[in-house]
Each structure stands twice: as C-alpha cells, then as structure tokens.
Amino acid sequence: MVERARPNLLITRHDASDNVELSNGSKWRIWPGDIAITLGWLPNTEIEISRIDDEMCSHVLINYSNRSQRVRVIKANEHWPVEKVRRELKSSTRVKGRLK
User: Fold this and answer.
1) CA 58 → CA 1, 44, 79, 99, distances in Å?
2) End-to-end Cα spacing for the chain
3) Distance (Å, rounded) from C-alpha 21 to C-alpha 41?
4) Residues 6+ apart with CB under 8 A from 61
5) CA 9, CA 47: separation in Å to the nearest integer?
6) Tens digits of per-residue pLDDT, 2-52?
7) Residue 25 region by backbone torsions, left for phi larger than 0, else alpha for psi between -120 and 50, else beta
8) Distance CA 88, CA 56 (A)
9) Which residues pair with 71 in a beta bridge?
10) What is the full DSSP assignment across the chain?
11) 47 contacts 8 by C-beta, under 8 angstroms
12) Is the pTM of this model over 0.90?
C-alpha cells in the first residue's frame, strides 16, 4: 500500500544540497544520485511524499507539477551506510555508461 501526503507541500528550505525541508515541517536527506534533479526546484514547487519499498530509501519526493521528477529520500536525521552508497552509485554509473 502506498502512503501519500496531500500534494500541497512546498519547499521551505533547500540550502544544503542534500537536505530539504517541506512546509509540513518534515526534513529529508536526498539520495546522492538524485540531488541534481532538485536543483531546479523552487520554493513554490509542489511536492508529494510517498513511502516506497527500497533497500536504501524510505520515501520518494515527487514534483507534483510534472510527476516525472522523483527523488529518493530518507528522514534528515538518518544516514546511509557509506559502503552501500558507494556501491550503488558506482553500479548506477556503470549502467548509465552502457546505455549511452
């Protein structure tokens, strides 16, 4: 079952590249491979939060305006295991390299 919040959440803070705070007070740490997606997000960007079943991330933030920008996140006070992140990022880089 997918847990969804109302899509009227706005970005209240996104000054650190890997952290974002939403208008409901929730704070999230952005998956390193997804940070570039958020660079175009503005304070008036509407965000929807959905829980996901993923080994590394607990939720996804979705840009509600186009629904195509999905950013994997964990709560801001949590941290990923460093070695797992390195392996995941290295693996995704190899896959992207093959697709080009």
Assistant:
1) 13, 24, 12, 27
2) 35
3) 12
4) 20, 28, 30, 47, 48, 49, 70, 71, 73
5) 5
6) 555 455 799 998 876 789 999 999 999 999 889 988 888 888 889 999 999
7) left
8) 9
9) 61
10) ---B--TTEEEEE--STTEEEETTS-EEEEPGGGHHHHTT--TT-EEEEEE---SS-SEEEEETTTS--EEEEEETT----HHHHHHHHHHHHHHHHHH-
11) no
12) no
Tokens representing 72 are 């994997």
Would you state the pLDDT for residue 40?
A: 84
- CA-wise closest residue to 61 among 73, 52, 53: 73
Cβ proximity of 13 and 28 under 8 Å: no
pLDDT-derived band at 83 (thresholds 50, 70, 90) equals: confident
Closest CA to 4 of 52, 46, 48: 48
List the beta bridge partners of residue 4.
50
